[in-house]
Amino acid sequence: MGVMGLSMAGQTLSEKIFSRAANKEARAGEFVMASIDCAMIHDITGPLAVRGFYEIAGKGARVWNPSRIVILFDHQVPADSIKAAENHQMLRAFAKEQGIINYDVFSGICHQVMPENGHVLPGQLIVGTDSHTCTYGALGAFATGIGSTDMASVFATGKLWFMVPQTLRLVIDGRLRRRVTSKDVILRIIGDIGADGANYLACEFAGSAVERMSIAERMTMTNMSIEMGAKAGLVEPDRVTMTYLKEWLTEEPIRGDEDAIFEEKHWDVNDLEPQVAMPHRVDNVVPVSRLPHVKIDQIFLGSCTNGRFEDLKLAAEVMGDEPVARGVRMIVIPASRKEYMRALRAGLIEKFMEAGAIVESPCCGPCMGGSFGLIGPGEVSLSTSNRNFVGRQGSPKGEVYLCSPAVAGASAITGEITDPREI
User: Residue limits of the Aconitase/3-isopropylmalate dehydratase large subunit alpha/beta/alpha domain (predicted)?
Assistant: First the structure.
C-alpha cells in the first residue's frame, strides 16, 4: 500500500497498541513515550536490571507497579554455578522486598510461563529482558525485548520511549502437509527474507494457514521474528486466541484496520517441505531433501520455540517404538511445568526415556550453552531451538542445525538429519 493520505488511513494493530499505551494517536515512524503493561526479567538479565533500578531510584525505592512485573528463573535452573546461585538469591530477595511475582525454579521458560499464566493479553505493550519476548505476539500483544538498563528505567517509571515500527504483513496461505510444521514455515520465511530483512519492523502473520494454527504453532513463529531482525511478531486476535485466553479475557481485543498502511509479502505452503537451518546462521535454510547426509551427536528437543506438548507429541509419534540411534544423545526438555505434566500424563516422558533419551525439568537447557548439554569440538547438535550461532550450544568448533520437532524425532532414530516424511 502507498503512503498517500497517511493522516486519513486506518491504523495497524501495532499503531493501535502504541496509541493506547501513549494515550495519543501514534503512527509508524513517530517517537512516543509509552506506558508498559507488563515487564519481565529472568535470572540471567534480571540482576543487572535490579542494580540499575537502585542506581536510578536509590536504595529503598519502590518499583512503579509490582503487580505488572514478573520474575522467572529459567536459564540457569537449577543453579549451575555459585554465581548463578547468588543471582537467584538476589532476585528472590528483590521480589520479596518489592512484592513482585516470582516464578522460582522449575516453573519453566519465561516465554511459556508468561502466556499460560495470564500475564499476556491482546493489545498490551509488554517488554522483557530477553530478545525472544516477541513470542507473546502470538496472542495479539506488542511484545519486544529490551536491555537491562532500559528495564531499570521501566521499573522506576513504568514508561519507555519507542519509535513506532512500520508493519510487514506476512501472508501465509495454503495447508501444511503431514509432518510439516509452523517451524518449517518460519525457517523458510527467515531463509527468504534474511537475518536483517525485517529490521525494526512489526511482522504481522496472517493468511489461511495461520488461521488454522494453534496458539502453540503461532508462538513458534512469533518467537523467531527476532531472527529476521523484527521488533515484534504479531498475530491478530481471533477465535483461537479467544479460546486460549477465555480464563483471563474480559474485553474485546484490539484489531488493525482494513485500510491500514503496511508492506505485504506472500507465501504458499501447500508444497512446503521440512526445512533445516544450517550452521552458523538462522537464515542459512535449505529443504531437508537437499541436505547432504549429516551425522549427529546430539538432539535437543525443547526451548521456548518448540518445547510445548504438541511438539513433544509430534516427535514421539515420528519416533514410534524405535530407540534413539546408537551414539546419539537426545535431550528432551518441556517448556514449562504445565507442559511437562501434560506430557507425563500422556505417557510421553516414559516413551522418551524408554527410547534412550533423557528428560530434564523445565528450563532453557542447552539452548544458550548455559546449564548443561553442551557439545564438544567437532560435534553436531540438531536442535528445535531458535539460534545456531558459533558457540551457541557449547564449543565454537561444534555445529548446530535447527529443525522442527518432526525432523528431530526422525533424526533421533536414524542418527543423521532425516526427512520425517520418510519414516
Answer: 15-290, 291-415
